[in-house]
Structures are given as C-alpha cells and as structure tokens.
C-alpha cells in the first residue's frame, strides 16, 4: 500500500491542502503537501473532514488483465484430467539427461559439451493411453528460478541418485528444493548396472535426508533404474503415473491458455522460437499471446521432440515450440492468451519499459535466461 500524501488526499477529497495541514497541526504533525500519511492518519483526517476513505491499489493494466486471468476459478465440471509434469532433479552426472533420453528414445546426453545440460528440455511422452510431460533443466537453479518467478510447473520431482555415488551435496539440495516446492518426490536410483552400485548405501543416505524408501516401510518410492540398459524405466513411468493418479491433476482445457516459456531464442534465420509448456487451457494457432515483454499471434506450433510434427492446438501440459512472438520472451515467464492484440501490445510495451528501467545502470545488457539467471 502506497502512503497517501497531503496532496493526494486534498485532490481525492476536493479539499484545500491547508485545511488538511491545519487538522494535522492540531494533532502536532507539521506537514507539507508532500508529507505522506499512513492509513490510520489518512482515515483520521478524512473523518475530521466528515468523509470516509476507500484505499484503492494502484493497478497497472498488466496487473488488472493478467491477474484476472490468473484468478479465474474453474468450475468443477469443466476440469478434466491432465498429464502430470515431471522434473528430474539431482546431483550433476547422476543421469538426469540420460534417463530422459532413454525414456523418449533419443540421445542428447552424449552430445552435450562437457556432459553438462545447456538447455531446458521439455517433452510429452505416452505410456499406454497416458501422457506424461517431462522437464529437464540444467540444474536445480533453473527449477528454483522458475519458482521464484511464480511458475510452479512441476507436479512431481524425480530425484535422480547414482547408485555408485549415493546421496551427494547437490542431491540434498535437490531434495530441499523439491520439499520447498511442496511436490511429491519419487527417487530414481540410477546406474544400477555399474559394478560399484550400492543401493543400501544410497538408501541409507536418502533416509538420513528424510526420504524413507517404501521397501523400508517409508512412503517414498525408490525405483532402481539404469539409463544404460533401460532397467527399471517402465517401473519408473508406472510409479510416476500411480503418484499422479493419487493426486488427480486437473485443468480446464476449454479456456484461454496460460503457461510458461521455458526457453526462447531469436536469430535472423529462424526468427523467434519459444519453448513453452501449457499449464491450463488450450493454445491454438492464431491466438494472441503475451509473455513478459513479448507479444504476438501464434503462427506455428510444433512438437518439441520433432519439429516437423506441426500442432494446431496444445492443451494442458503439452510442450511446444512456438513461433509468432515479436521478440524472445524471458525464460520462466508466464504467457497468457488475450482477446485484444492492442491490449497485448500495450502490456508487452509496459513490461519492456519496466525491464529497461530495471536494467538501467547495468553495463552490457544480457538477455536473461534461466541458465544465466543464477550463474
Ligand atoms: P546429468 O548431469 O544428471 O544430466 O547426467 P547425464 O545424463 O549427463 O549422465 C552423466 C554420465 O553418466 C554420462 O556419461 C552417462 O552416459 C552416464 N550415465 C547416466 N546414466 C547411466 C546409467 O544408468 N548407467 C551407466 N553406466 N552410466 C550412466
Ligand atoms: Mg543433464
């Protein structure tokens, strides 16, 4: 709540400022027209003037429009089951990227420079008639950064622990991040194919960190996996689906879409490409979207696994590569679908202006992505 100055009250009440100053003087407050008053004092003065005050929050257009979209409560009857969103977290090199590779049948891990994940990946896969969306991040910094921006896209955290290494410092951090996000935890005890695999030691480490394996009578499912041989991957998916069923994740596909930009690039050849995950509603070609300081109409959408597979619409937790934004939207920022392109532009421009002022004084503007945010 912004303090109300003598001038603000004078203007709002249509009373000369000196009348207000006199009332304040009687209370022993020496005030100029710029003196701020706290709400109690404002109310007192207003009462002396025989008026009531109503404090209104100053709202920007962006606040008003986007908050209203955020606050739409879906009718129970409009809610439908949606695929869960899974994030792999854990110590570097314990196999997050390899597990996801194996699950979707591609090989990204071996092509990564220095074995470190550079990009956020997001895919939706099918297991029987069920879908599961996966997000692989360069590290839990990206997970935390997204949460810091209010984007809680993760439903279930899979903590990946290499069975030969056991619980490491970054595993402990990952566990506390998952706890802070208040999401259910499943453990993938990975690299079970290695001769040095020591599941007892790893599970001891887990229970010391409050994750009691179910085979020891606790409530945390620990699935033994190997991204190398594929062992346990089916069981991992089944476990994820069981946890998901328990939580009954739902969304309303029949409303305007809201989601999160995971990553975006802009170059001369390809234009602006944004990797998005839809949280609720359905995103369609031609929709007017705004995301941070970027806006536009959805020109094309394609599957994040196969860019040749075009999509006309993307429902809850679908992951898409999208074109149509004027500039690259910031990673971790929510996107919204609006009815009015002029309004979308106005919001994006207000945001761009705000961003510029925030960056004022910094040398060398650098586009912030989730990867650079916490570097
Ligand atoms: P991340 O940093 O957690 O994403 O780990 P990566 O997926 O990049 O894996 C790190 C290294 O461990 C790579 O060389 C992988 O080939 C290897 N690796 C991952 N999972 C397994 C596994 O289950 N068994 C074996 N033997 N190696 C694995
Ligand atoms: Mg990785």
Automatic annotation (TrEMBL):
Biological role: One of the essential components for the initiation of protein synthesis. Protects formylmethionyl-tRNA from spontaneous hydrolysis and promotes its binding to the 30S ribosomal subunits. Also involved in the hydrolysis of GTP during the formation of the 70S ribosomal complex.
Annotated protein name in UniProt: Translation initiation factor IF-2
Sequence positions that bind GTP: 90-97, 136-140, 190-193
Residue range from the parent sequence: 365 to 739 of 952
Family: Belongs to the TRAFAC class translation factor GTPase superfamily. Classic translation factor GTPase family. IF-2 subfamily.
Domain of life: Bacteria
Tr-type G domain boundaries: 81-250
Region described as G-domain: 84-232
Subcellular location: Cytoplasm
């Amino acid at each position: 709540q912004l303090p109300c100055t003598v001038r603000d009250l004078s203007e709002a009440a249509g009373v000369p400022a000196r009348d207000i100053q006199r009332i304040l003087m009687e209370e022993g407050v020496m005030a100029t027209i710029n003196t701020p008053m706290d709400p109690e004092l404002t109310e007192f003065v207003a009462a002396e003037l025989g008026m009531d005050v109503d404090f209104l929050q100053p709202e920007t257009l962006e606040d008003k429009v986007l908050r209203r979209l955020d606050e739409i409560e879906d009718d129970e009857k409009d809610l439908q089951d949606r695929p869960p969103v899974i994030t792999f977290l854990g110590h570097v090199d314990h196999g997050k990227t390899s597990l996801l590779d194996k699950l979707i049948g591609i090989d990204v891990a071996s092509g990564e420079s220095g074995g470190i994940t550079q990009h956020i990946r997001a895919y939706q896969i099918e297991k029987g008639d069920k879908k599961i969306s996966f997000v692989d991040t360069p590290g839990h910094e990206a997970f935390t950064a997204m949460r810091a921006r209010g984007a809680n896209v993760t439903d279930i955290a899979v903590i990946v622990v290499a069975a030969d290494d056991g619980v490491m410092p970054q595993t402990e951090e990952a566990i506390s991040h998952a706890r802070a996000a208040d999401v259910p935890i499943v453990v993938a005890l990975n690299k079970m194919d290695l001769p040095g695999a020591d599941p007892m030691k790893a599970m001891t480490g887990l229970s010391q960190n409050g994750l009691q394996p179910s085979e020891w009578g606790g409530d945390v499912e620990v699935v033994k996996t190997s991204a190398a041989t594929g062992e346990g991957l089916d069981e991992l998916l089944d476990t994820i689906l069981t946890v998901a069923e328990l939580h009954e994740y739902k969304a309303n596909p029949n409303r305007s879409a809201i989601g999160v930009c995971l990553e975006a690039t802009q170059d001369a050849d390809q234009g602006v490409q944004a990797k998005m995950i839809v949280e609720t509603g359905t995103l369609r070609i031609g929709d007017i979207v705004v995301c941070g300081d970027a806006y536009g109409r959805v020109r094309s959408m394609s599957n994040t696994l196969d860019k040749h597979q075009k999509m006309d619409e993307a429902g809850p937790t679908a992951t898409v590569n999208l074109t149509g934004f004027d500039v690259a939207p910031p990673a971790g920022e929510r996107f919204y679908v609006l009815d009015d392109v002029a309004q979308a532009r106005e919001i994006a421009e207000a945001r761009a202006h705000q961003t510029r002022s925030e960056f004022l004084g910094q040398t060398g503007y650098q586009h912030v992505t989730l990867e650079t945010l916490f570097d």
